[in-house]
Amino acid sequence: MTIEQNQISVTHTGNGESTAYLRCIVHRKNYLHWYVQKNNGELKRILYIDDNDHSTIYDDGATHNKFVTVWESNVCSLIIKKIMDEDAGTYYCALWYYSIHTDINQQKHSLCKDGSIKKFGTGTRLLVIDQPPKKPEVTILKSSTEDVAKRGFAIYMCNLQNFFPDVIRVVWYVHDNEKEVESEQGDIEHNNSTNTYSLSSWIIVPISDLKMTFTCKYKHDTTKEGWGMKSVSGHEYNLETQKKRSNDMKCNEGLPSFNRMVYRAAQLTYVMLILKSFMYLPVLIFIMNKSKL
After folding, report:
1. In what order do the strands lie in the sheet with 20-26?
2. Tell me, what's the pLDDT at 112?
3. pLDDT number for residue 97
4. End-to-end CA distance of the chain
5. What is the 3-state secondary structure (H, E, C) of the chain?
6. Is the peptide bond before 165 cis (omega within 30 degrees of 0)?
7. pLDDT tens digit string along 211-225?
8. Calpha distance 268→115 (Å, rounded)
9. What distance in Å separates the CA atoms of residue 99 and residue 2, rounded to the nearest whole number?
10. Using CA atoms, how far apart are residues 233 and 124, in angstroms rounded to an integer?
11. Tell me, what's the pLDDT at 282?
12. Residue 162's closest CA among 199, 108, 211?
């Protein structure tokens, strides 16, 4: 039994004229419920749909003038009409059914020990505000070749900047097989002057995986039910060249950098003195022989 809510958030104005469509994808039709959570308060059920005749049964305080449900194949949409400020909140769809098994000996059905199975979607946040959504500006930063050679791994950082609203989900995948990669994430930062948000997420990539392509994927109001993405790889890292440079530097690491020119000059002077001594050697031998005579 699976249930999906692919919209992470939707944004509308609260003038009583707009309508929101919240979608819930289910792969098993049972009694479907819609809940709302406002201001981090308790979950409150709005309605549920009878699996027998697909009729909508409203809970207290909810009416068809505000909420309507529509089935299309395996998608149930909750339609919220005439949106006002008080409609803001996170809306969850849920499957709730009783699992039964057959007693072969007595040929009758009975409830399982847990009594029922409930499964909730991830939720869709309805924001009621006059500011329109703004797409993240995405850039990826990478470790330098020197850092990778020294540490034995690279860091890829996905920066998402100047987006609105602040509801966002970021994940990393291996590009070829859509395998999710363990990642770290910073806090969402708020820019008061523009009323936009920024976020960074990063992964650590060992040298053995540098040839692989990784994708930073994000879900936001501006991506609707899909994902935004940006990919990166380490194909340009030339660690063999960097290793050779490091070895060359190790050969000279005993000499302070500011004395290397002086050391070279001393070497040249020493060679010149040796050559000069060879030039005077015949003269010295002649003088020594003459003195003996």
Report:
1. 3-4, 20-26, 75-80, 67-72
2. 39
3. 66
4. 118
5. CCEECCCCEEEECCCCCCCEEEEEEECCCCCEEEEEECCCCCEEEEEEECCCCCCEEECCCCCCCCEEEEEECCEEEEEECCCCHHHCEEEEEEEEECCEEEECCCCEEEECCCCCEEEECCCEEEEECCCCCECCEEEEEECCHHHHHHHCEEEEEEEEEEEECCCEEEEEEECCCCEEECCEECCCEEECCCCEEEEEEEEEEEHHHCCCEEEEEEEEHHHCCCCEEEEEECCCCCHHHHHHHHHHHHHCCCCCHHHHHHHHHHHHHHHHHHHHHHHHHHHHHHHHHHHHC
6. yes
7. 899 999 999 999 988
8. 93
9. 15
10. 33
11. 65
12. 199
Token pair 């699992």 in the structure block, residue: 99
The full length of the chain comes to 293
Q: What is the pLDDT of residues 85-103, one digit of tens each?
A: 999 999 999 987 665 543 4
